[in-house]
Specification:
Blueprint: H1 2-15, E1 30-41, E2 44-48, E3 54-59, E4 62-63, H2 83-104, E5 108-113, E6 126-132, E7 135-136, H3 137-143, E8 148-149, H4 157-170
Parallel strand pairs: 3-6
Antiparallel strand pairs: 1-2, 1-5, 2-3, 4-8, 5-6, 6-7
Length: 181
């Protein structure tokens, strides 16, 4: 019986079916090299795996202003709930989408699934970080003021919160829409 269990374990390891730690981040158990085939908006992309399978990915931990729906200024602290506030957010939604297109469209990237987060969002989209030659894309969105922290559970939440605080304090990107910036 022990020999059968060891044989099964060996086959699973060879097939790559066990989570195991991969890469430099000890929290990360799942990484996938993919190609970004479409940028839906600043925080959503469609990717293609090497086997041709496609998946819609919601960037973990970030929320960019909407371009396909109305923005709710209440989601962006300090942005007034006025036509001017909504227009400013819509403009930054377009800028966020363009930044994502410029950086990611057609590029090979690595999706990193965070074991501290849900695997899928409310619309069934895979939740993941995107790593690419430019670094950690999700974090750059917050650093550069293209996105706010999407406050859910994920490993880098505190770092993203600090990045948002700095961007807000400096009136960076979408935070220029806030009162007093």
């Amino acid at each position: 019986m022990r020999r059968v269990l060891l044989s099964c374990l060996f086959v699973l390891l060879l097939a790559g079916c066990l989570g195991g730690v991969v890469g430099d981040d000890p929290r990360t158990t799942e990484r996938h090299d993919v190609t970004v085939v479409e940028v839906v908006d600043g925080d959503t992309v469609e990717v293609e795996y090497p086997n041709g399978t496609r998946e819609t990915v919601r960037l973990l931990g970030v929320d960019t202003p909407e371009v396909h729906a109305e923005n709710d200024p209440a989601e962006f602290e300090g942005v007034p709930d006025t036509e001017t506030g909504r227009d400013c957010l819509r403009d930054w939604g377009h800028r966020s989408s363009e930044f994502a297109r410029t950086e990611l469209a057609g590029e090979e990237v690595t999706l990193v699934v965070d074991p501290e987060s849900d695997r899928r969002g409310g619309y069934g989209r895979l939740l993941a970080y995107v790593e690419y030659d430019g670094g950690h894309f999700n974090r750059q969105l917050v650093d550069r003021g293209y996105a706010r922290l999407y406050d859910t559970e994920f490993a880098d939440r505190d770092q993203y919160a600090d990045a948002e605080r700095r961007a807000r304090a400096n009136g960076t990107g979408l935070w220029s829409c806030a009162d007093g910036s």
